Every structure is written in C-alpha cells, then in structure tokens.
Amino acid sequence: MTTSVLSLPQGAELPARSFRLLSLKTPAHLDASETRRVSSQSLLMGERELVIQHQGNEYHLRLTRNDKLILTK
C-alpha cells in the first residue's frame, strides 16, 4: 500500500479534516520476484488439509485427489 500527498490549488479551501489517498498497487520499486513464496508441500507437511485462522475465521486449505488446492471457509 502506498500513500500519496496531494497539494491543493492556490486559494482553494482546506477540507474540514485531513485525509490520505491510499493505493493497493504494488510500488514500482518492488517487483514480483520479491514476493514471498511458500511451497504447498512445506505448508501441508505431508497432510491433505490445513486450517488457516484469519481475523477470527477458519479457512481450510485442502489438497484434492487430482493434486489441486481448494481454499474454503
């Protein structure tokens, strides 16, 4: 996430409160090769299912008979 600071034109009224514009784009100085990668084998450690806890919810990562991964809530 990146933060941008914008200037108002000369003589423009200031907003009632300050705000920031946020962007979810990856910054240009980070390329895809820097994205952290984890193998499914290291996550599953020989098992066929893994439970991931995220913000109070449980998600199940399952390895199918056809060696596909399925993530369900």
Concise description?
The protein has 73 residues and is mainly beta. It has a domain at 38-73: Complement Module, domain 1.
List its salient traits.
73 residues; mainly beta; Complement Module, domain 1; 3-stranded antiparallel beta sheet; two-stranded antiparallel ribbon; 1 helix
Please give the structural blueprint.
Elements: E1 2-4, E2 21-23, H1 40-44, E3 49-54, E4 57-63, E5 69-72
Antiparallel strand pairs: 1-2, 3-4, 4-5
Account of the protein in words:
This protein has 73 residues and is mainly β. It has a domain at 38-73: Complement Module, domain 1, CATH 2.10.70.10. It contains one helix and five strands. The chain has one helix at 40-44; strands spanning 2-4, 21-23, 49-54, 57-63, 69-72. The chain has a three-stranded antiparallel beta sheet, with no helix packed on it. A two-stranded antiparallel ribbon has the order 1-2. The longest helix has 5 residues, at 40-44.
